[in-house]
Amino acid sequence: MAFESGSISFRMFALDGSLPRDYVKRFASHAPPPLETLGHEPIRGWVTGRHLLDSAINDETAHLAGYLRLTLMKAEKKIPEALLRAECRMEELAEMQASGDAALKRQKRSEIRQEVSDRLFPTMPPTLTGLPMVYDPPHDALYAGAMSEKQVDAFVLAFREAAGRTPLPVTPAVAALKRKGINARDVAPASFSPQIEDELVGNSLGQDFLTWVWFFSEARGGLLATDDGEFGVMIEGPLTFVLEGKGAHEALLRKGSPLVSAEAKTSLLSGKKLKRAVLTMARGNDTWQAGVDADEFVFRGLKLPKGEQLDFVSRFQERMLALHAFQQAFLRFYDRFLEERGSAAQWKQTLTEMRAWVSGRTARS
């Protein structure tokens, strides 16, 4: 979804330097060419956040409520596979009837497919897609709807070409190094199960963190004081568990009450850790909820607190402030985890508590 309304799916990015003063002109110079030039190869370029055909980027259209709001647009022509198969089959049947052959050779079928593709392609309308992006200058925060690895690569390349700065996805490893000076490669594996040795489990800071959040919410009350107030946190299903090592074994718990299910306890006891879950955070009457991918810090379907009925610009500003509050609270919980993870004595105590929590969990069949 876009950033203006509804839920938000996004990644956090960090820039390797400040944006140049003429960044608006730079993005404008990388607007897409006219759709009339679209051929067999896709065209890409930056457009405003207003719609996917608005390539008129200037100081006014590129900003909304003080935020840089642009979209990386991609246009391409595609022949629907079902249509292509049907048209090819029609031609094949006609050719078989004319030649009297019961079947066509592979080369002939390939030739027919190419001929049909060449005939249909010019009539196909362009398909437009976009990767929305918001940059928050006061907080130097960059958010983008680049969810897949392919989308991240396209976004990073296009942003660097336009602005001369490289956006770096804020993964668990990047955040650990940037915020607490912890190198993820130096962190030893840790088992949260009293039945599994440390060396037999995966070594993922993100999975360790998300599992720790679950423990923190249930065993320690889930409350954390921050500069922006006290936040509470809780984990909800669906839950995806994974055990890495000699192969990867996943378990998805979706229906019923997955948190207190026998399958959840079994997964934890077998050394599995949380890879994906729904994270809910609250501050007073405000609530944030999103699906979290622990390996990459990807957030899906973030629901922001219900705001006031304001005009469009004010509502967008309100949403961006709420998004920033979520980001900061999430990273503060991560800081708390890293502080424990980075202290040998404290982490030893945390492991003792987590293993007791795993062993003593309620398990309903």
Topology:
Layout: E1 8-15, H1 23-28, E2 43-48, E3 63-64, E4 67-77, H2 81-99, H3 106-120, E5 126-136, E6 141-144, H4 149-163, E7 167-169, H5 172-180, H6 205-219, E8 223-226, E9 229-243, E10 249-253, H7 262-269, E11 273-283, E12 286-293, E13 298-303, H8 312-341, H9 344-359
Description:
The protein has 365 residues and is α+β, with helices and mostly antiparallel strands. The protein has 3 domains: 115 residues, no CATH class; 42 residues, no CATH class; 186 residues, no CATH class. Helices cover 36% and strands 26% of the residues. Strands 1, 2, 3, 4, 5, 6, 7, 8, 9, 10, 11, 12 and 13 form a 13-stranded antiparallel β-sheet that branches. The chain is globular, with a radius of gyration of 25 Å. The mean pLDDT is 93.
Features:
365 residues; 3 domains; 36% helix
- Taken together, the total number of domains comes to 3
The whole-angstrom Rg is: 25 Å
Global structural class: alpha+beta
| Relative helix content | 25-40%
Regions with pLDDT < 50 over 5+ consecutive residues?
Answer: none
* Order of helical and strand elements: EHEEEHHEEHEHHEEEHEEEHH
Determine the number of helices (DSSP H or I, runs of at least 4 residues): 9
Largest sheet: 13 strands, antiparallel
From the spread of the alpha carbons, the general shape counts as globular
Q: Note the gap between the termini.
A: 37 Å
Oligomer: single chain
